[in-house]
Amino acid sequence: MNDDMLGYLEHLAQQGDFLRIPFGILGSGYFLNHPDLAQQVLLKQAKKFQKIFTVKYTAKGIFGENLFTSDGELWQVLRSIINPAFNAQRFNAYASIMTDYTKIMISQWQPGEVIDIPTAMMDLTLGITSRAFFGEDLRDNQIGQAIIKFIELFSQRISSFPVPIWIPIKSNLEMKRLFALIDNHVGSITVKRRQSGEDYGDILSMLIQAQASDTTGLLTNEQIRNEVLNLFAAGYEVTAHSIAFTLYLISQHPEVEARLLDEINQVVGDKTVTISNLNQMPYLEMVLFESMRLLPVTAVVSRQAIENVVIDDYIIPKNSLVLVAPWTLHRRSDYFPEPLRFDPDRFNSQHKDNIHKFAYLPFSGGPRICIGNAFATMQMRINIAMILQRFKLTSLSDYQLQPIFNFNTRPKNGLPMLTHARKGID
Ligand code: HEM
To answer: For the chain, which domains are there?
Structure first.
């Protein structure tokens, strides 16, 4: 499991749809690999489950509860406060940040250059996310670097058994140091914002406004800081890797690339992509959806039962861990025939409504579905369309994609790709 989580999940999926797995001192785990079972855990009986111990403990020891880790009342309050940040009317502003930053990135690429796509996409996403959330680009100063390093250490901590944060091992000390830097910076931006009273149209402004009308007392200054950091941690790396996987899959399927380019040329031409263009490019969305099916960055979603839960004829005892794996659900041949084939047409208008809602879970499902899914889907389509307008990307001849699990799915040895010029954009 530790050495090859994705292989382990595939191995489990071959054994059956409902398995009990011994997890040593953590007790029993249950692996549920059928869309109806996933729907029970994530939707129908969602209230009987919470985030697992390691997720809660890892975050709590460092920056306190947040939307990702909390449950019950705190989660409900946070979700309702943060939801408006992802309302459609804010998306015009986010879209122009996304196009501006993509334009800058591709204007710096040289034809014939080999680029590690995940690294480039993480840099791009960090720029976009920090402008959309904080109103400033954090990449150019030490805060951006601190956030990258912090998220890396945090991911390692969350995917292993966490050493209590007060024990002075190297990674704990480093996380504390980085957190202090980030905390200080976010704190001072927040104070300035509050003093100026100005609405910057970003997520930080929105949280500050929500604080003024919050009657629960739960949206404290610390909570605002936690949420901004959490939205970073939850969103930036997964978005970057999803874009990277999609660009790779496009490069491996010339017929898909040709059809996609046709669509982009017809709808956008040489112009800058707009939100209304996105609605006119169904194939772009199909390609992205199929990429997230074949290579879902969140390979597995985990929960802990807070009471005995009855599903079908089985009882999942209180405290058990439950794993629902988009990685294996997306590879069920009864829901996705020839599951290893990259076929965007699975998501065409004729087929997509017939897909069981819980057979396809790149953003999970139910009340805890990813809050950033529309933001990420918009960003990924903008980035992919703009990159393809200007560049053809090919993978290196000796390159073999090897997805591995490290809290999220990513390519084991990066994903270097060669750039070939197509044409300019305005
Ligand atoms: C391709 C990009 C993304 C993927 C694949 C993804 C995937 C997911 C998944 C599977 C979950 C459910 C986790 C669970 O319940 O255990 C989740 C939750 C979450 N995601 Fe995303 N995410 C993406 C982008 C983003 C972005 C851009 C943001 C922030 C702007 C974000 C913020 C969150 C938050 C805060 C949660 C917790 C929501 C809650 O529990 O109420 N995600 N994401």
So the answer is: 5-421 (1.10.630.10)
